[in-house]
Amino acid sequence: MTIERMDLFRSLAAHRGDEIVIMTMSATLQWPLVSQHPLDFDFLAFGMGHASDFGLGLALARPERKTIVLKGDGGLLMSLGSLVTLGRYGPPNLLVLLLENRSYEMTGGQPLAPGVDFAKLAQGAGVSKVETIEFLEDFETALPRLLSEPGPRFVILPVTNSEPLPPVSHTDHAGRVRDLRHALGVM
Amino acid sequence: MTGVGSARTVTVLKDLEFTHVVSIPDGESRHLFAALTDDPEITVISPTREGEGLAIAAGLWVGGCKPLVLLQNTGLMEAGDALRGCGIGPSIPLMLLVGWRGYPGTLAGRLPIDSAYPFTVPLLDAWEVPHWRLMSDEDLPVLAEMDRVASTSSKPAAVVFGHAFLP
User: Fold this and answer.
1) Minimal Cα–Cα distance from A98 to chain B, Å?
2) Is the CB of residue B113 less than 8 Å away from at least one CB of chain A?
3) With CB atoms counted within 10 Å of each terminal CB, which end of chain B scores lower, N or C?
4) Smallest Cβ distance to B52: which of A53, A58, A173?
5) How far apart are the CA of A15 and the nearest CA of chain B, in angstroms?
């Protein structure tokens, strides 16, 4: 039971309002195919495994709107302690969507350590709102709730991808930061 | 007496309008950590590793807050990729208050020299992070200088403290 990643992205983009969306790794290649929003933020190359940490800081700073993080399971394994910090400090406006493909996709699809239970890891780390969604229909049904109800929330989404990955875009990192701060009205 | 007063340091940080301190407690900063935790005007966040903390601080800054990262030199060494990726590369003015583990022992001639000691300043130089030394209360104005340089350059900057903060 998995969800085709681009279908998931299309669904999220259709429901998304003025939430900040932080993406990293494979999501940085495919999310822009369905969304060109000033509150989209490409975290690629900003620090391995730290997209949700950055998102936590941003969500704390901007409590008036939800911050959504799209990250992979390989990245999570690089900073597992992040789950503990999410459980301890994660604010109600933070939604982490873990795209679980069980591989390091960007580097050739090398497999992750088998048997890791990300839901149990998150629960054991103190994250109280953890769920796994395995079907696109269930994700679409859950989206209004995920986007409106308070978190912090950690959602595991087993995904596959059958569409070609666009090339990596090496846009100016400082420019990405300036654009997001401008969109947020931060001087 | 060597070392810096924790209460005076908190006052300076509040005057500089820091909103958050991101820090994993360590022996040298424990009194400052306690003073910060007791102060209602500054929010303390304790991550599990320093790289994580730098990324949290970057998110806070992008969102309009003013964080300080309080960490030991060993944590700075761990956090190299986050400093590069969340500070130097994207021009985010992360401000670091770095405990110089090994400094007092080296100063006193103790052997063996803590391996964290000799690499601290060369590491900051290699990353082109401007830095100042905080050894006593008289040095506290360096915090404002770090703030000024980080803000005007929009790049990370650091203050290195050599002795444990005083109660």
Assistant:
1) 17
2) no
3) N
4) A53
5) 23
The separation between the first and the last C-alpha atoms of chain A, rounded to the nearest angstrom, is 45
| Residue-wise pLDDT tens digits, B128-145 | 999 999 999 999 999 999
Q: Do A82 and B48 touch (CB under 8 A)?
A: yes
Rounded Cα–Cα distance for residues A124 and B18 (Å): 33
What does the pLDDT read at residue A121? 98
In angstroms, how far is the first alpha carbon of chain B from the final one? 13
A177 → closest Cβ in B47, B84, B90: B90
Identify the closest residue of chain B to A87 by CA–CA distance: B47
**Hey, are the CB atoms on A57 and B64 less than 8 Å from each other?**
no
Q: Give the pairing of strands A103-104 and A110-111.
A: antiparallel
Q: What is the pLDDT at residue B1? A: 60
User: B136: exposed, middle or buried (C-beta count within 10 Å: 0-12, 13-18, 19+)?
Assistant: middle
C-beta separation of A24 from A51 below 8 A:
yes
Q: Is B143 on the interface with A (CB under 8 A)?
A: no
**Closest residue in chain B to residue A46, using alpha carbons only:** B85
CA distance linking residue B61 with residue B79, whole number of Å: 18
Query: Residue B137 and residue B101: Cα distance in Å, rounded?
Result: 19
What is the 3-class SS of A42-88, one letter each residue? ECCCCCCCCHHHHHHHHHHHCCCCCEEEEEEHHHHHHCCHHHHHHHH
Please enumerate in sequence order all residues whose Cβ is within 8 A of that of B140, keeping only pairs 6 or more positions apart, or say none.
B4, B8, B9, B12, B134
Decide if pLDDT at A187 tops 80: no
- B45 close to A (CB below 8 A): yes
Minimal CA–CA distance to B99: which of B161, B24, B25? B161
Q: What is the ipTM of this complex?
A: 0.97
- Would you call B68 an interface residue with chain A, using a CB distance cutoff of 8 Å? no
Q: Locate tokens 């239970």: which residue?
A: A117
Neighbour count for residue B126 (Cβ, 10 Å)? 10
Residue B67 with chain A: CB contacts under 8 Å: 57
